[in-house]
Amino acid sequence: MPSYVVTGASKGIGFEFVNQLSADSGNTVFAIVRRKATATQLSNLLRKNVTILEADVTDAKALKLAAAEVSKATAGKLDYLINNAGKINHPGFTLDGFPSVEALEDDLLDNFKGNTISAIHSINAFLPLLRKGSAKKVLVLSTALGDLDVTTQGGSFGEVSYSIAKAALNMVVAKYATQYKDEGFVFLAISPGLVATSMTEGFNNAAGELKLVGSMFTKLAPPDFKGPITPEESVNKCLEVFNRWTVEETGAFVSHHGNKQWL
Ligand SMILES: NC(=O)c1ccc[n+]([C@@H]2O[C@H](COP(=O)([O-])OP(=O)(O)OC[C@H]3O[C@@H](n4cnc5c(N)ncnc54)[C@H](OP(=O)(O)O)[C@@H]3O)[C@@H](O)[C@H]2O)c1
């Protein structure tokens, strides 16, 4: 039975990964949430092959405890890790426009903890199990905003800390990929597209950020772009790319189309 861990599974894209993976009763899915009590969408799923565990992904100890729970249930093995949890603050300032040095540093550090260091903690916690698993695959949710060409050619100088933290996350993936290629691991950073979740809802309400990303969306959008896609469509495409990704291509950063078409 293939086993999966999904972080940030309470809602949005993370919930949808759990939903689609657990639809196959042959899969065992461990859904990690910050607080079980508020993860009602997930608890209402009521699938026998889904186990809900609690861990804040910025807390390395909590992740180790969650990994120990998974290990007990799987005889020490894990096949797939989907590192989905992430955060954004939408402060609406350029790098030189924060109201104080403290506000700039707080936003940078908060994003770095919630998007970059958290992924390292998650991967480190589950690596011993993944090494004993048969798939050895790790998917990490990044964003087109962490791409240098999107930034310069798309004219996007907003969402600064989030973009910087996700760009660093792409390097995290490249580092693990390089270290573990000889063991047959596949690490992949993926941008899920523009997806209708609470994260994008927050962006649409952040007038300051919308101004700063400028014409990025119009520049990136293909002629047939119809706006944000559903979590269902995004996860379906991400899983298709993840499933076909091989060790030869480990460490890449691609979109939900499996290339550099971001929308
Ligand atoms: N939506 C998009 O268009 C889009 C585009 C590019 C990339 N992404 C990336 O895709 C991933 C999922 O985003 P989403 O749109 O589904 O966002 P979302 O609806 O805001 O969901 C984020 C998930 O991450 C969890 N999370 C955040 N911080 C956590 C922490 N410290 N510990 C444990 N869980 C934590 C949240 O849990 P709580 O419920 O406890 O807050 C929630 O389950 C993120 O990495 C995001 O950066 C999304």
From TrEMBL:
One of its GO terms (molecular function) is oxidoreductase activity, acting on the CH-OH group of donors, NAD or NADP as acceptor. It comes from the Eukaryota. The keyword NADP applies. Coiled coil: none annotated. Keywords: NADP. This is NAD(P)-binding protein. The lineage of its organism: Eukaryota, Fungi, Dikarya, Basidiomycota, Agaricomycotina.
